[in-house]
Amino acid sequence: MGPKRCAVASEESLMRIFTVPEAPDSTLSKIELEISSNLAGFLNENIAAIEKPLHEIEKDFQDAVLPEEPMFVSDYAQDIMEQLVAHSVHTAAPSFIGHMTSALPHFVLPLSKLMVGLNQNLVKIETSKAFTPLERQVLGMMHHLAYGNDEQFYDKWMHSAKTSLGAFCSGGTIANITALWIARNRLLKADGEFKGIAAQGMLAGMLHYGYKGLAVLVSDRGHYSLGKAADILGLGRENFIGIATDENNKVDVEKMRETAHQLQAKGIKVLALVGVAGTTETGNIDPLNDMADLSAELGCYFHVDAAWGGATLLSDNNRHLLAGIERADSITIDAHKQMYVPMGAGLVLFKDPAAADAIEHHAEYILRKGSKDLGSHTLEGSRPGMAMLVHACMRVIGRKGYEMLIDKGIDKARYFAELIKNDPDFELISEPELCLLTYRYVPKQIQRAIAQADEAERIEIYAALNRFTASMQKRQRETGRSFVSRTRLTPAQYDHQPTVVFRVVLANPLTSNSILKDILAEQKALAKTDPIFKKYLTKYI
Ligand SMILES: *Cc1c(COP(=O)(O)O)cnc(C)c1O
């Protein structure tokens, strides 16, 4: 790159960036044209396949001093192509099957540009107008999908100034916090002299109601966002109690019941049960009906974290897997996971339209009482019009289209599980219930060595396998052809010892069966040259 041309800060150049579009032959316009006409090609060509180490990349982002002088847009575009785009992650690649982020439908690109151009703020009607009814409709349609109330219900509540059927937000974390915020405020509500926790705080609430503590019970496989919720809601992370799961990674409701009774005997009130519908690590679904029974028994709130798995409701063929979800007081669903919406689209649905009263807040200059402003029921303040993209996907893909996508993902996971099971050098660790599974590479000779080893030796092999699995996952990522993620589980087949496993999510519709075969073949090849394998595991072969 030659020396930078120098732009000058002037009133005229400032006015230009607000009024004059980029010329058709400018660098940025060319980028725009390419991403509009061929996004996949653009990403394939411009994201470097081979990883550059992070400390190298950091050198391009070293300067702590904000630039004094302006820069030409084209020069900037050139810079980010080399420094940022090239070293971003190709999440849309069909062989990138490690995370919950996958390819996007093409039409969301121009639509997101329109959304940014309109720059609406959903906190209040004054800055969003039609976007507010649209967002309320999105919440209504998702509410109907989950709870299936009748037409009258939605006629009455969907656009009601008094309530909201849910809260749209940036993602599952905020959705979960919002749900537990409501649970907390409903439990410690105003009563006689006591003005409620929102007004008087946790301590006053506990003293008034005579509780020695509050607890939330969730599966050991609960998402870490729930811990954050416990922290900021003043419940305390230790009072967020993880309950053991069965061999299918589903929470053991009997153990949950025992724990709840033990806590209540100590004067600790169970505030809520949280069911997970699609755990982040293994994609399994808790027994939601049993949990709903237990929460009725305990008289506590029941929230379902379906951030990832909630989209399964879109498939008539598979929604039975989430049976009981309709009994939850609230449900978290991320549209930016299995609904193929770009990042920044989560929502929480409330069974009872009056639920959000518990967190309602008003301000004089905005969010006046009786207004339809969505901001009076949300944790976040200013929010973009992301609901438009959810609306677009719902309209363009339709429930039937989503059903095909969801079913295809689950079928593909089953196919991949079969490939793994039929190959003696791989081991399936968790069966796919949705489109997520975990597995590891353990050649049959090592499996035999484990079977014959004494306990000390077995622990040694387990440790070596863990290090090897982690090493392989990293090497596969760095090679850049494909990507699987990894996590740590405690499966029965490894004596409940911490076990590092590969984790794949098969949501990308462009991931073909032959890509899946290639990924296993690539892993076999990588294993042959793995330094950790050579050092610690060849002796068992
Ligand atoms: C992804 C996920 C979350 C968190 O959602 P974000 O959108 O990342 O904030 C919460 N719970 C589960 C089960 C998830 O999979």
Automatic annotation (TrEMBL):
Any single Gene Ontology cellular-component annotation: cytoplasm
Annotated transmembrane regions: none
Sequence positions bearing N6-(pyridoxal phosphate)lysine: K337
Superkingdom: Bacteria
Keyword Nuclease assigned: no
Signal peptide limits: none
GO molecular function annotations of the record: carboxy-lyase activity; pyridoxal phosphate binding
Pfam assignment, any one: Pyridoxal_deC
InterPro entries per record: Asp_decarboxylase_pyridox, PyrdxlP-dep_de-COase, PyrdxlP-dep_Trfase, PyrdxlP-dep_Trfase_major, PyrdxlP-dep_Trfase_small
Listed GO biological process terms: carboxylic acid metabolic process
Cofactor(s) essential for the protein: pyridoxal 5'-phosphate
Keyword vocabulary terms for this entry: Decarboxylase, Lyase, Pyridoxal phosphate
NCBIfam families xref list: NOD_PanD_pyr
Family in the record: Belongs to the group II decarboxylase family.
Protein name (database record): Pyridoxal-dependent aspartate 1-decarboxylase
Protein encoded by which gene: panP
